[in-house]
Amino acid sequence: MDKINGPYHKEALYVYVVIVLAHWAEHLAQTAQIYLLGWSIPESRGVAGLWYPWLVKSEALHYMYAFVMLVAFWILRKGFVGRSYTWWMVAFWIQFWHHIEHALLQAQAIFHHNLFGAPVPMSVAQLIIPRVELHLFYNTAVTIPMVIAMFYHMFPLPGEEAHQGCSCRVLNFIRTIITVAMMILLALCIAGWIWADTLPAEKMTGARWALGLCGAMAVGAADTSDIEVALALEPSPPVVGDSNVTLTITDAAGEPVSGAEVKIEGNMNHAGMKPSFADLGETQERRRSQTVKSAPQVPPPVFDALRVPLLGRFLKWRYSRTVLQVPVLLVSLVMIAHAFWGPQLAPKNLAALLTWVHFRGLVVLVLLLAGNLFCMACPFMLPRELARRWFTPRWEWPTALRNKWPAIVLFVMVLFIYELFDLWSDPWMTGIMIVGYFAAAIVVDSLFRRASFCKYVCPVGQFNFLGSTLSPLEVSVRDQAVCSSCTTKDCIRGTRAAAVETSASNQQLPVIQRGCELALFQPRKVGNLDCTFCLDCVYACPHDNIGIVSRLPAERLAVSGTRSGIGKIEKRFDFTVLAIVFTFGALLNAFAMISPVYALEQWIAEVTGLRVEWPILAGMFGVALVLEPALLLGVAAAISRLGSDEPLLSVVNRYARSLVPLGFGIWLAHYGFHFFTGFLTVIPVAQDAADRAFGMALLGEPLWQLGGIPEWIVYPMEIGFMSLGLLGSWLVAWSIADEDSPRRVWGSFMPWAVLHLLLYVSAMWIMTQPMDMRGTFLGG
Questions:
Q1: Can you give the pLDDT at residue 167?
Q2: Per the database record, which ranges form the 4Fe-4S ferredoxin-type domain (predicted)?
Q3: What's the average model confidence in pLDDT over 148-158?
Q4: How open is the CA angle 60-743-290, to the nearest 5 degrees?
Q5: Phi and psi dihedrals of 295, rounded to 5?
Q6: Which residues of 361-395 are buried (b: 16+ CB within 10 A; e: fewer)?
Q7: Alpha helix (H) ranges present in 155-292?
Q8: How distant is the alpha carbon of residue 123 from its chain centre?
Q9: What distance in Å separates the CA atoms of residue 490 and residue 25, rounded to the nearest whole number?
Q10: pLDDT given at position 381
């Protein structure tokens, strides 16, 4: 990857542009076949479809184009810096949605289950725009920011040019050629628009759609910013002035060594100095022969929630978390009361409905759209803070249990008990579980120091930690240099009274603002694992150097090496098992809610003669969470390590984290299905609860007819969530393979890509089956 984004970046972009043009040629040929030749839409199959019709009918051709373009956007992104990086990522995200649409079409072609009752596969946007024009629109929407990114990449600003590690820059007259070419294209589009008047009415609209979109692309490519149309055939001599280079030597920990600094100064102003075309060519060849891996990257613009007016001020207020926790705690208390004293019919009980429909759905959606905000507003921590006023923790968490094993056991137990006791249909048992959770949090954190419950015990917390690796926001330092010069390290140690007031006493002064209780040292923190978004580090930092910043989802999953408070996850078997349980547990939990599971349980009962459910359920859990992962991951690791004597477990540990994006996509599809199809059901249940509690309709008469979004609309969203997860798993696995085996990336990557695809297809099959509408009246 370093060579592709270094000396061979220009060649890689050439190949990519050829693929893009081939894709455009297919769609433009199809447009010409419909609007110029008068062919019917089924007959208009582009170029390749003329010889191989199955490529178009099976949706394979355009899905592969969409997938290859998406992967290329991702791989080539590291070669762009500054403005070009921003525009490149805009194109990437548009292409990502374009790929989701094609994945939706491909899934319908494979499973022969078309959306909206259509005779042919349908995408979501096809409800608004016809398919031929829609694909022209999508490709134009992707091409415009892509061309802008390439333009800025070829003609970078002086500050950006110094950080480019490739030789993609071209001579200034090429700028003119591109501009003139785009102007000619725009003129042809205008002429075509006028010519469209001669076409029949049924063809005029489509032709103008295509010409208008091409014209928009030409304008977007030509009018990027400050393009001067000048036909100078020789570039002006560059201004070469004083040059200064400072080298700072650091130790193994990354800290600057005092006094170890080398300065190199020189002047390049020579009379008559003027580069020729040959000189520039030699310079490019010289760049081609080097891979500038150490070139610092211009950080792309990031969003920081703590710098947003009002929101940032509120979040930096030390009581902001308490303000968020209080309403969630009050809702929890209402749920507990309704669980014990409300109606024991789950669809009419707030405890069952909010826990199993709304809470789970909101958690995964908030993780996807923002970050680990539930842990930030966790209601279990507020009583714990009150308890610590009377019970000071005296013990350290046992060394042998400083891992994820306790949480893994509890996570599996929750999944097992949920199915065994049908918690979704039992408000009273749901209330018992909520009370037990509060009690466990209070007892553990009253006995043991720091956030032992969150880090080592809480199964919901572990779910959120893994899910938040896919979140777009992360608590992170803004400037590493500020942290390097910091002497107090308050973000981890906490702020003591001496920091704000002087004292002559030799006694250790009390902590007035604690640091991170999960042992995450911010300058060495990587990603969201083990981070509860409590913001204690933000409150404690004396330099205001910590923010809630944007980042690329799943990006930190691919990072190897030591993580503060965690160590190396690629060497921790407990993290491997947690990722496996998280992913295969998502499949198991969804499978347990469809009709075939009842037939399977009945068959097992007949074969074994068992008349109780728990051993049958335990056997299914053993197969799904132990035997199946061991077999599938073992085979993938064995093929991946061919030619190496590396232990099998080491390979599994390294690649297991690539399962997390797909696992989260399955959880998101499953929980999102229940939430979206029943999110309004809480209104009549709350109205009924108020009526029963106060003897009057304080919230109005119950509107029992309220439900949610129809299933036929939610189904494409499920496919989109799972496709997003599959893509994320492939990207993480590719990054690991690229780092692990740079000479045989495909050989290391493909076994895991096939494993992810098998799990994805299994999840797709599950989601196409009739699913229990648990916790609501929907579906009868």
A1: 61
A2: 523-551
A3: 77
A4: 105
A5: -65, 125
A6: bbbbbbbbebbbbbbbbbbbbbbbeeeeeeeebee
A7: 158-161, 172-195, 201-222, 277-288
A8: 22
A9: 59
A10: 93
For the stretch 343-352, pLDDT in tens is 999 999 999 9
- Supply the pLDDT for residue 517: 93
Residue 533, judged by CB atoms within 10 A of its CB (0-12, 13-18, 19+), counts as buried
* Strands 242-250 and 256-267, bridge-based pairing: antiparallel
Confidence of residue 301 (pLDDT cuts 50, 70, 90): low
Which segments of 619-734 are extended strands (E)? none
Are the beta carbons of 299 and 83 closer than 8 angstroms? no
Tokens of 307: 């710098």
Q: Tens of pLDDT along 3-44? A: 777 777 777 887 888 888 888 888 787 877 777 777 777 777
Q: What are phi and psi of 166, to 5 degrees?
A: -140, 180
Helix (H) or strand (E) holding 242: strand 242-250
Q: Residue 414 has which token pair?
A: 């929750």
Chain position carrying tokens 């013990």? 395
* The predicted structure's pLDDT at residue 142: 86
Beta strands in 346-387 (DSSP E): none
Count of Cβ atoms closer than 10 Å to residue 502 Cβ: 6
Q: Which two tokens stand for residue 458?
A: 């809480």
Distance of alpha carbon 66 from alpha carbon 102, whole angstroms: 7
Q: Where are the beta strands (DSSP E) in 484-617?
A: 495-496, 511-513, 546-550
List all residues 6 or more positions away from 756 whose beta carbon is below 8 Å from its beta carbon: 658, 659, 662, 726, 729, 730, 733
Q: Mean pLDDT over residues 215-233, rounded?
A: 43
Q: Whole-angstrom Cα distance, residue 460 to residue 453?
A: 11
Instruction: Decide if pLDDT at 111 tops 90.
Output: no
The H or E element containing residue 265 is strand 256-267
> CB count, 10 Å around CB of 343?
16
Q: d(Cα 669, Cα 764) in Å, to the nearest integer?
A: 10
Helix (H, G, I), strand (E, B) or coil at 138: helix
What are the angstrom distances between the C-alpha of 348 and each of 362, 433, 700, 709? 20, 18, 16, 19
* pLDDT grade for 675, boundaries at 50, 70 and 90: very high
Contact 142, 94 (CB under 8 A): yes
Return the bridge partners of 546, or none: 477
Q: Could you tell me the two tokens for 232?
A: 């100078």
Tokens linked to 438: 């509060």
pLDDT at 203: 53
Percent of the chain past pLDDT 90, that is, above it, reads: 44
CA-CA-CA-CA torsion for 562, 650, 754, 108, nearest 10 degrees?
-50
The answer to whether the beta carbons of residues 666 and 725 sit under 8 Å apart is yes
Determine the pLDDT at residue 684: 93
Q: What is the pLDDT of residue 774?
A: 60
Q: What pLDDT sits at residue 458?
A: 96
Q: What's the pLDDT score for residue 1?
A: 63
Backbone angles phi, psi at 257, to 5 degrees: -85, 125
Residue of 284, 282, 381 lying closest to 328 (CA atoms) = 381
DSSP 542: T
User: What is the CA angle 738-758-55, rounded to 5?
Assistant: 90
Average pLDDT over residues 150-159: 75
What does the angle CA 753 – CA 757 – CA 763 come to, to the nearest 5 degrees?
145
User: Residue 404: is it exposed, middle or buried by C-beta count within 10 angstroms (0-12/13-18/19+)?
Assistant: buried
Q: Residues 619, 603: contact at Cβ < 8 Å?
A: no
Q: Which is nearest to 167 in space by CA: 21, 287, 55?
A: 287
The position carrying tokens 């103008």 is 208
Mapped onto helix, strand or coil, the DSSP state of residue 215 is helix
Q: How far is CA 501 from the centre of its chain?
A: 44
